[in-house]
Amino acid sequence: MMGGGLLASLSPPVAAAASKASGCCRDFHGHPIWRNAHPGSARFLHVAQGCGGRTTHRHLIKQRWFSCREQELGYLSSSGGEMLVASVGRKQRRCVENVMVVRCLRKTEGEEVLPKRAVIVGAGPAGALLALLLARQNWRVDVFERKHWDGDHWAAGEPAGWSVMLGGRAAHCLEKVGLKEEVWLKGVVCTGRTTIRERGLTPKYQAYGYDMLAIPQAELAAVLINSGLSNHPSQIFYHFGWSLQCLHPDQATTEFSHLCEDGDGGGSSSVEKMSVTADLIVGADGLHSKTREELEWKTPSFSSSLQQIPAGRHLRLRVPMDVVGTQIDEAGRVHGPSMLVVVRSSRLLWGLPNCDGTMALTLQGIKGSTTSDVSKEMSESFPELAEIFSVDAEATRQLAGAKERTQGTVVVTTFNYKQTVLIGDAAHSLLNVTHLGTGLALEDCLVLGGLLQESLVAISDSPETRDGQVAECVTAALARFSEERMPEMTAAANLCSEVAKTNMFQVELQQAIMRVIARVVPKIQPWQKSANTKVISVKQLAGWRAREIVLVRVALVFALLLMLIRAIRLVRLELHISIKYLEL
Asked: What is this structure's pTM?
């Protein structure tokens, strides 16, 4: 299909208006179709074609057209400059008939316009951050998310997701896109952990020695999504309510489906489908990744394994302030809201504070499916929350209806295949015991964005050879990404597995001994502090933890020796006194 065919499909007034908008001369000369059009620096011309065939011309403005189903059409030029007709789509919302959107793009002097198109599956924190980074590199990015969106937030009824703890690694990644301060306003800074053991209900505050941010994962993703929608409306296009159905990795093609209501009031619906071919396909769709599943099904050289463990039921509610509010440590210092851990025999409660005064609670070991059973279990194990979880309480109904969530470790043979790559939990989900998962997922985006930018610097400006070069450069960049990140993620998985095997008593004993050692030798800091305040290699962290374990064992042996020596001295003193007594 040639550019002349494209112009022939447009009405003469539309073509004339496009010519006027671009500042070009009278006629256009056809060029081969440029499938992956980059709509950067866009000047949008909106042309409404009425039923009578008339065409009205509105003024040029910048506007977001999220509701347009887009079809890439062609690349055109004239003697007065270059113009790209990036898309002609039909307006779907508001039932507007025969509305066409012509996006006219002018390539200004010195501006790089490349046929680069990326498809990202999943609009979580990793997918949304990568979209921002690629848009800054002049990519056209389409992000497909199965959840629904309403204005500037997730639609009502969508799962809230986990709450996460962000440390220094995540802060570094967010600073790169200028969103750290905005994200920090959406969460609660925690400086320690409040632990309640068995009966007695006496909270014990343990300071971290550093700050961590507690924030719902959905809130973090929403900040990144809104930044993309407002700052890159002509480059980032979110498709909410669309699910990946099929991936063809050899052809770099994806197929998505969307359940649409017909709008006739009868409650009927239909399934809409979309097929997209791109230069880069990114699977950022979480632990149960459809992208990973498709790669394993259709790529003989790719395999993966998922080891899951129950992670409890999750809900969000308000809890008594005397349990999770202001805490006082052993030194009498006052601290604000903290992470809450309640340990009761076979049941465990984790709580993270939210900025609206609620707590994101995860309860492990609750088996009941009815409100009476759940209320009984909660009153037996967590009597301080018995009033909140009475039989008729809304919290009890939420907990009884909540599904048991899982967490797990994902192991894959490689993160990439040709032009497809996995990032975040889709590639390397970790057990939630070190608070490293979200930071490493965001770090994936920085590493991948840097490698793509470095690889695409030297491609040709010729449209005839550009497509092939982009595919080769993307494939090479993804191979380097996998080579660099695989050892790190293997070390992270091993680290989390080892930490998960230690019980609470061992952790507290180790931390207490390290605090004493740090007072004597200030240069030696606990590995958890380094993990959550610095951006360093996970392999290095694992080495520090191994060193810390050796130091703790040496300290324990030394303490035992001191106790043994003291015991021997006491025994000798007792014998000496006994002998003196007998002599008398």
From this structure: 0.74
